[in-house]
Amino acid sequence: MNKGKKAGKGTNAVWGGEFEPFQDGSHTVPVVKSVTYAYDDLDEWYEVAKGNQKGHIYSRNTNPTVAVLEEKIRLLEGAEAATSFATGMAAISNTLYALLKPGDRVVSIKDSYGGTSRLFLDFLPKLNIEVTLCETDNHEELEAEIAKGCQLVYLESPTNPTLKIIDLKRISEAAMKAGAITVVDNTFASPINQNPLELGADLVIHSATKYLSGHSDALCGLACGNRDLIDKLFRYREINGASLHPETAYSVIRGIKTLELRVDRQNQNAMQIADYLSGHPKVKKVFYPGLKSHKGHDIAKKQMSGFGGILSFELEGDYDAVKAFLHNLKYVHLAASLGAVSTLAGPPRTTSHVELTEQQREDLGISESLIRYSVGIENPEDLIDDLENALNLI
Ligand SMILES: *Cc1c(COP(=O)(O)O)cnc(C)c1O
Questions:
Q1: All domains of the chain in start order, with CATH
Q2: pTM of structure
């Protein structure tokens, strides 16, 4: 074995954090529910508490099961360090609160995740933190706003629901020149398809609730970056308390082991479905970064190794057509969220963008007849048959 060689993502997903034997030779990660950790020796306890020696003190801070998950995402994102949170939103809010102070300025995009948008529009301004939201794929506008001076640049690519693509290398460079930290929410791509740290970002965040867990049965947030930044997030989280439960960490660990297999299949399924829908007369427009017709295709090709499992499309017709279509699909749950093994779909007007007015949605390019379709790992021919049938019934 070549010891210096870096393992692939599929291998790291399985083995990351699991090289040292677990108790009694356990083959799977033990779920350590203990809140506290006992020491026979006061001096040892002191050294662990001071951080001079490996070990755990209290599970709000660190926990052996949670630590295995953190090591997996660290390897998958090629980061120096990683930490975890109770939910994706906890990862995002804790990151912003840990790194920003009154008087700071954030530059971000209009298409960020709904909850993140609420932080930008409602919560940060209350702390006297200025937020400027740019047109998502307008790189010139982003660069100009960043150059005016800011402390943090917050990005997502691809975005929800029209899969807009941002050149992460280009914008990270602009941020670096301005002395700002670049944070990328990598939830939609997953670490299999995209590694923002390699493109110059400083921090990567995941809602592990989605692809990493993969089964819609765990809420979890993760963050990766250099040790300094991750320490800041960890220090904030251990006091503010949005810690991950070890049972949930176990679910995500189990999910991650099949991440590469699932995402590979989802990439293939989504590409086939996007091609199929593009040729259908009842479909007005398909948004998928893998399509040559997609505005961000060239950048996506450069910075992603797969185009992901989410696509969206507009039907010919109005909202009644959307209802008829969705109600006639068989292999789908009409539900929020994404990245699960089973296909999920819904109109952004009732899910992610329900709080916006019709005009606000239109400004973001979200028409009333848009459907977001998060492709599962089903057999693609069944999904395409299902789509065909529901389209015929409109
Ligand atoms: C779901 C999601 C979040 C929020 O994650 P939770 O785990 O639901 O708190 C953040 N960003 C993106 C892109 C998401 O899809």
A1: 9-256 (3.40.640.10), 259-392 (3.90.1150.10)
A2: 0.97
